[in-house]
Task: structure prediction
Amino acid sequence: MSERKRILVAMSGGVDSSVAAALLKEQGHEVIGVTMQLWDYSKNEQSCDPSAKFDSCCSHDDVADARQVAVKLGIPFYVLNYQDDFKENVVDYFTREYLRGRTPNPCVACNTFLKFDHLLERAKRLGCDSVATGHYARIEFDSAANTYRLKKGHDEKKDQSYFLYSMTQDRLSRILFPLGAMTKAEVRAHAERFGLVNAQKKESMEICFIPNNDYARFIEKNTKPSEIITGKIMSEDGATLGVHDGIHKFTIGQRKGIGVASDKPLYVTRIDPDSGDVFVGDETYLNKSGFEFEKVHFIRPCSQDEEFEVKIRYRSPAAVGRLVTQNGADGLKRSGVSFASPQRSITPGQIAVLYRGDEVLGGGFIEQVFQ
Result:
């Protein structure tokens, strides 16, 4: 950007968002730093236990780090309380999906239903031209098509474009990703150059509100016993192998912790939330040809006549597929994806994102898997 702008930077306390703020300030822009307070750790006794592992972002320590960086950079800094919105749009959604036998992605939900809406609204109120974050992704403007394009970050290992599939043209016109063309090593080098307190801070690897990465325990502590769906463990050939005490403890493709003995490896192949039955079988049952979308969203129009690369989870490699339309169980026409070759462990509740090369075209929630 050649002209000076007022930019709101979302600062999590991590090195990425801190460097994004520092670079924009160095370029001469007026930078305002904000941290979104999303989760009250003082209400979670797990996080107060010194022996408990709580490797997450958005904690009080992270807020303190973001504040120190803002002081170092000489920029205004605010902490915004969005705990109620976070609980409703992310935590409750996460719990509700697991209770339905689905596997949600709370980080996508946070980006889709919470962060950018609030940040853009706050930026407008503060008279800011743009919102910047530390995401590893790129935004390019196609002047010939008068369209913004969302693209992968140059660092393939850190690319976060998957989490941003719900972007709209309006959002893309007002958002900046200053780190999109950088590697993580380059970002840390900039942090050292700026003398930032979090230059070598480790990355958060867990979901921010789940202590010890124990999903099942968190769900059980935050739901009524009557909402837990129990049932049988069934083999794919129809035999009853055992019982279980909650479908929230299982996900498609799971091998360990199933609770039945077998002389060959067994995997969770499907979950029936109506009966409470969890089905298991050998890994051949995991291979499926496609799925139906729920809440599908496209950044740019896509044609059913072309092939796309589709990622069915963040860390999975992309696979070739086509858009299809078919009648769902309720008789309504639904969009979906049919793969050129069967894919392993397509999981309801996860997000599928469509790419053309390094461009994100859109995506949606996986609803029904083609049997």
